[in-house]
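Students often ask what a holo structure prediction actually looks like on paper. The answer is less mysterious than it sounds. You provide the chain, you provide the ligand, and the output is a string of discrete structure tokens encoding the 3D arrangement of the protein together with inosine-5'-diphosphate.
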Amino acid sequence: MERTLVIVKPDGVQRGLIGEVIGRLERRGLKLVGLKMLQMSEALAREHYRVHEGKPFFEGLIRYITSAPVVVMVWEGPQAIEIVRRTMGATHPAEAAPGTLRADYCLEVRRNLVHGSDGPETAATEIALFFKPEEIVSWQRDTDRWILE
Ligand code: IDP
Ligand code: MG
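The corresponding structure tokens follow.
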């Protein structure tokens, strides 16, 4: 089983798309194991997006992600990282495949609705940045046997 960090970014919260993001991942069959709402501090945002420090869009990205509340989640499932990334679509909405969240709801890379971890190490680091171990809920889902063989 893999876990991945998903963030409904400030534009998603403001536009009333929290439920849409959760619904897509829930219907896909992934299991929600962590959930909270918060407004990122500048320090937290800089830490989360550390790999992008120095890039031309970095300061704008920090302003965007700290501008309003976000919803941060941990989703679990086989290949959860890849499955979430494909459900989100490409970083640039114009390149996102039809039917993905970013294709269906976004126009610009600076307002691209969602974040999803991009690999196992990143996922572990990002989850630890936003969640204490006791805030992750390991639970049995009665439908699991109809979703997972
Ligand atoms: P990802 O969110 O699909 O993983 P990354 O390349 O990790 O994409 O970039 C992180 C975030 O930084 C993007 O989701 C987007 O909000 C922003 N970003 C990425 N590239 C650009 C750009 O060229 N201009 C402005 N913002 C960008
Ligand atoms: Mg990324």
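Residues 18-28 form the longest helix (11 residues).
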